[in-house]
Specification:
This protein is an alpha+beta fold. The chain folds into two domains: about 10-175, no CATH class; about 265-390, Histidine kinase-like ATPase, C-terminal domain (Heat Shock Protein 90, 2-Layer Sandwich). Helices cover about 65% and strands about 10% of the residues. The protein is built from ten helices and five strands; from the N terminus they run ααααααααβαββαββ. Strands 1-2-3-5-4 form a five-stranded mixed β-sheet, with helices on one face. Helix 4 (about 90-105) packs parallel to helix 6.
Length: about 400
């Protein structure tokens, strides 16, 4: 069977034990004791019983931190032995330190029991001798018991409470710092996602048109067609550059030298649809809405923009319908485009468009779905218009 080994004693405890032992030896050599040899309580006179109690108490001091309950029990036996000898004040002082250490370093249940036991012993040491002998001097017995036992125990309890409070405060500070770091990381992630959505939605439409018309200009050897394609390319390049400047304005918001450009609103859907028509889409717009919160306006605009970009890249020829309707405190956005087989996309895509649209709707407490409905691909998003009720 494995034997449990005690941890190594603390260096300070060894110093205390050695210092106490040397101090006690010096008092014995000098013949200084706490009581004369002719007192009735002294059953073992001479220096050797005093040294025996001193050695045991010094050994207990080594264990005051690694085994506080064992040290106190053995130290209690040593102080009883010291009481029956001429005694040493160093032995008594080391016992008070054992009492203090048992409360400070021992288990919580033991520390509470020691408080009660030493308190009861102090009261008993005060009342019982006085009741038996009726002498005022007997009250000093309770005072001595209180100084030797209850006083160190109470001091250890106070120090323990302060230590535990400091440890709890440290743990709370660490938890607060951890939560702050988590919040900071989440804020950074959220901001990066927002920037990614803005960059994708602002630039993807124009770059897709550029890619499609540059392909047409390279594949068709007709000057008029090439000139028309280059005109569309230039227009989308200028608009894309303006959108990039707007994004830079958003990133520099709050600086003294740059004012962020205004975010797009639903009033700009006509221009957006006009640009899609210029890029070759057959688009019809039906918008019926009143006053809409700015975050909802931006999200709805971006969803329509991304849907038109996807139709430009993936949809076969046919009419694209954009419909916005406001009813019962909800803005409904629906974009329908032809759906069917084609050889491949007219321009490469990143696959992040649907993810970004779904994130925009979720952030505002709305819903989003996209998928085929018969011969059409339908994108639908709904946004609650009551501010302060995000999901």
């Amino acid at each position: 069977m494995a034997v449990r080994r005690l941890p190594r004693p603390h260096r300070f405890d060894v110093y205390v034990a050695v210092g106490g032992m040397l101090g006690g030896l010096l008092l014995v050599v000098l013949g200084l004791s706490t009581r004369p040899a002719d007192e009735p309580i002294v059953l073992f006179d001479g220096p050797w019983p005093v040294l025996a109690a001193l050695c045991v108490m010094a050994g207990c001091e080594v264990l005051r931190r690694v085994a506080p309950r064992t040290a106190l029990l053995v130290g209690t036996a040593a102080i009883v032995l010291d009481t029956l000898t001429q005694g040493s004040v160093v032995t008594v002082l080391m016992f008070t330190d054992l009492m203090y250490a048992a409360v400070l370093y021992g288990p919580l249940a033991s520390a509470r029991r020691i408080q009660w036991i030493t308190g009861l012993l102090t009261v008993a040491g005060t009342l019982v001798p006085f009741a038996v002998w009726r002498e005022p001097e007997t009250l000093l017995i309770g005072v001595v018991v209180g100084i030797v036992a209850y006083g160190p125990a109470a001091t250890g309890w106070i120090v323990r409470n302060h230590r535990d409070a400091a440890e709890a405060a440290r743990l709370r500070a660490e938890q607060t710092a951890l939560l702050a770091e988590i919040d900071r990381a989440q804020a950074v992630t959220s901001e990066r996602a927002r920037m990614a959505r803005e960059l994708h939605d602002m630039v993807a439409n124009h770059l897709s048109a550029i890619a499609i018309h540059s392909t047409a200009a390279l594949s068709i050897d007709e000057p008029d067609t090439s000139r028309q394609a280059l005109s569309v390319i230039r227009e989308n390049s200028v608009e894309g550059l303006a959108e990039m400047r707007r994004l830079i304005g958003i990133l520099r918001d709050g600086s003294e030298d740059h004012e962020p450009a205004a975010a797009p609103t639903l009033d700009g859907l006509e221009a957006l649809v006009g640009g899609a028509r210029a890029n070759g889409l057959d688009v019809a717009l039906h918008a019926e809405h009143g006053r809409v919160p700015a975050p909802v306006e931006l999200a709805a605009y971006r969803i329509v923009q991304e849907s038109l970009t996807n139709a430009l890249k993936h949809a076969p020829p046919g009419r694209v319908t954009v419909a916005l309707a406001q009813r019962d405190g909800v803005l409904d956005v629906r974009v329908r485009s032809p759906y069917g087989h084609r050889d491949g996309p007219r321009a490469p895509g990143s696959g992040a468009g649907l993810i970004g649209m779904r994130e925009r709707a979720a952030l505002l407490g709305g819903t989003f779905d996209a998928g085929p409905e018969g011969a059409h691909w339908t994108v639908r998003a709904t946004f609650p218009l009551v501010e302060g009720e995000p999901a």
